Amino acid sequence: MAEMVIVGSMALDSVKTPFGEVERVVGGAAVYAAAAASLLAPPRVVGVVGGDFPEEALEFLAARGADLEGVESVPDGKSFYWRGVYDYALSDRETLATELNVFADFNPTLPGSWRDSRYCFLANIQPQVQLAVLDQLHDTCFVMCDTMNLWIEHERDALAEVLARVDLALLNDAEARQLADTPNLAEAADRVLDMGPRLLVIKKGEYGATLVSRDDYFSIPSYPLPNVVDPTGAGDSFAGGMIGLLARRDDCCSTELRRAVAFGTVIASACCEGFSLDGLKRLDQAELARRYDVLRDIVRFDAMEWEEFGA
Amino acid sequence: MAEMVIVGSMALDSVKTPFGEVERVVGGAAVYAAAAASLLAPPRVVGVVGGDFPEEALEFLAARGADLEGVESVPDGKSFYWRGVYDYALSDRETLATELNVFADFNPTLPGSWRDSRYCFLANIQPQVQLAVLDQLHDTCFVMCDTMNLWIEHERDALAEVLARVDLALLNDAEARQLADTPNLAEAADRVLDMGPRLLVIKKGEYGATLVSRDDYFSIPSYPLPNVVDPTGAGDSFAGGMIGLLARRDDCCSTELRRAVAFGTVIASACCEGFSLDGLKRLDQAELARRYDVLRDIVRFDAMEWEEFGA
Prior knowledge:
Strand order of the largest sheet of chain A: 5-4-1-8-9-10-11-12-13
Mean pLDDT of chain A: 95
Oligomer: homodimer
Radius of gyration of chain A: 19 Å
CATH topology of chain A: UDP-N-acetylmuramoyl-L-alanine:D-glutamate ligase
Helix content of chain A: 25-40%
CATH class of chain A: Alpha Beta
Number of domains of chain A: 1
Strand content of chain A: 15-25%
Low-confidence stretches of chain A: none
Shape of chain A: globular
Distance between the termini of chain A: 46 Å
Largest sheet of chain A: 9 strands, mixed
């Protein structure tokens, strides 16, 4: 097991899906990723919260082994706030409000003893902030970063600098096409790898995820869910599951990377089964193991005996 | 090896994609499916063509072992014609023209000796026509059908009758949601199975395909393609690959069904590499075998030792 640090937003979300609606519940990329990773290894969390952020959420993360020394609290400030609504098939969402609040001045400072963390997940934040974190880490073995269309459009240079310094970039398929400026996803993957990271994960929501490098290609479907409630945080839970497994195994060979994508897939599925952290809270290690084994069976098909076949 | 019959359109298509444009090239669901199936077992083809349908296309199918006794020719009629244009990411297409021509009066009559065909693919046609074919088959072992949004909206009763009589329904994800009237794909699958077929394949285009039954769930990504040219006919090539493999093995147990989905996936990938039948013509058995084995590797991830893991 190696040390892992997760940096990103800690938020309050108001979310409406075809299956329900919640107001100002706990969310944020770092919160989802840390809750997910904590199923596998204890994360170090870097973020900022206002006085309105529920104490119970921090207690929950701490009880799961998370170290919250890197969480800055601004008692007279308000937490990052996001309000969004999902479409009928949960494949698209519209942002109705974003209030940065204390997150506007987020200037992450890693506790001194955290600077040799071996594994790091930089959740979606302004790339300049991601670079500031990278500058503080001096002995990483594996860094993954997320991003979003806003930075691809408006902060392309800084984002390119981030991509040149991380091991793995996490993008959804639209972002990959946008970043690489090509409709062909295989070609887009190639161009993203040209920008620096040796690995790329393309997140496809309910369609699964694909891991690409110069010499490896791995792709699995999502875990089938009869009861999807809210996909908010699924991508961050996926990332948390990945970095958690890699830190736990302290190995990022192809075998562990593929397993990490499978863990991310399974943990993301649990995230979608409730609002806020409800789904991740319900997922225990036995259910995690069960779903991992089910996912292996879902993609299994037998070899052919090509001699008989005549090929 | 068992006898297999394929029923559907034989067409001339004008297609525009971001990668090129062709005018009045050979297409049609039965043509793509037969060309695909012929890589695995000789198909019996039922369809209708006008005097403008290229003789070379029929000769190509015959040379690949297809029996064309069921293809009606109307020398003074025009073939079914479709004109369409694809969007940037090839995920959506717009139909600019559809001329039924000789297909308007398509009233398939199976040659007497074909009525005991064991395997059958009913490509997308009006469900009443699919029912007329089913009435002529009296000893089938496995029947699969395709359909489209038009029939889901306007011929729901006849379509329901078809679904109650086939073994496998082939739908894309939008059609499954529309037919079942629910945004949740897992729930949609359940409701489609309630309508009769014991198996459902949900085609997801570049995202792969999922096979669902009451006691089996199988899902694989598509085969990655650096050079997609035109996805027209990919779904029909997929279906042709499936029925071809099942007929070749003369077995529709879970093992062969999963393999059939993998063959369909690989053959559909080749279809997308050219306009018309160009991609399918280039695919030989060695390349088919290679892609099948690559696809097995693409989805492979290792088991965990849960005891060590603590689960």
